[in-house]
Design brief:
The protein has two domains: about 240 residues, Aspartate Aminotransferase, domain 2 (3-Layer(aba) Sandwich); about 90 residues, Alpha-Beta Complex (Aspartate Aminotransferase, domain 1), CATH 3.90.1150.10. Helix content is about 40%, strand content about 20%. The longest helix has 15 residues. The protein is of the alpha/beta class. The model has no long low-confidence stretch (mean pLDDT about 100). It contains 14 helices and 13 strands. A hairpin with an 8-residue loop joins strand 9 and strand 10. A seven-stranded mixed β-sheet has the order 2-8-7-6-5-3-4, with helices on both faces. The protein binds pyridoxal-5'-phosphate. Pyridoxal-5'-phosphate binds next to helix 3.
Amino acid sequence: MIDLRSDTVTLPTPEMREAIASAEVGDDVYGEDPTVNLLEEESARLLGKDAALFIPSGTMGNLAAVLTHCERGSEIILGDKSHIFLNEAGGAAALGGIQPHIIPNQKDGTLRLEDIREAIRFDDIHHPRTRLITLENTHNMCGGAALSAVYTRSVGEIAQEQGLKFHLDGARIFNAASALGVDPADLVQPLDSVMFCLSKGLGAPVGSMLCGDAEFIHRARRTRKMLGGAMRQAGLIAAAGLYALRHHLPLLTEDHRRARDLARGLADLSGISLLDLEPPSNMVYLKLDPDLPYDAAVIKEKLKGHGILIGYENLRLIRLVTHLWIRDQDIPVVIQGFKEVLS
Ligand SMILES: Cc1ncc(COP(=O)(O)O)c(C=O)c1O
């Protein structure tokens, strides 16, 4: 099957499996797993931060960051299309008593600076206290948009002026850096904390990293323990993450090129239109025309018969994601599949 549902579906490569099999391990809760320690050091260095923490998932990484930055009854500012708000089971509210303050994501994934300023609470006993601003880069629900370093710096300036913390859901931060042609450390420089995923485009089977200054990571280590995310001989999975960081980063540009090739091939088909004619990273979003007689669920079932798996955000919006296991020769097969299904 050509699986375009997500970049989370990647399987470990044979070389990655070898790295897993030969990993040196120890008890990471005692700080004794050399492979985890190395992964944390390399991750921090890549993002220009003091320290990093290996976390089982992106959801737990974002939650650990929010719980470490904020107290009960406080408020976080985030986008209405953000993964933290939409797809993390309301963890910050349920487990941390932290209130989301939602402002609209623009088409390019940004939050308007004036909306952020307006959302910040002034000191009044009636109000929750604003503690944190979060962004997402690349922005999943905004077509995989990459937020620039200049924009991120302007949000960072507001956070700093107002004494707020600043967190990035950077599940795909290396896709953003690759799309913009910049050093990932420059992109995340203004942030107090950054979560990125090893298990998406980078192709590792498990794991995310939370990066920040040493004091923040020290406190986040306790939060991770509280959430049940402290692992023992985790070097087995950290080895896959290390392998991914060392070998798969340059491949992201290929995923982006394939997404553009796919978009180009689908652009002329009737019944659908592209959210973005030039997808910014590894996601192609397709809107179904209002008069198309079948919905995304039907198209998904029909494409299965052509050996193609797709995902959809709602019944009129399809998402196709390129990743490590999508090859050049798959692109014309997918275009042909859509052609037949839509005709
Ligand atoms: C933007 C974004 N943030 C966070 C996550 C959560 O990662 P995980 O599935 O590892 O919990 C995802 C997962 O798809 C994501 O797309």
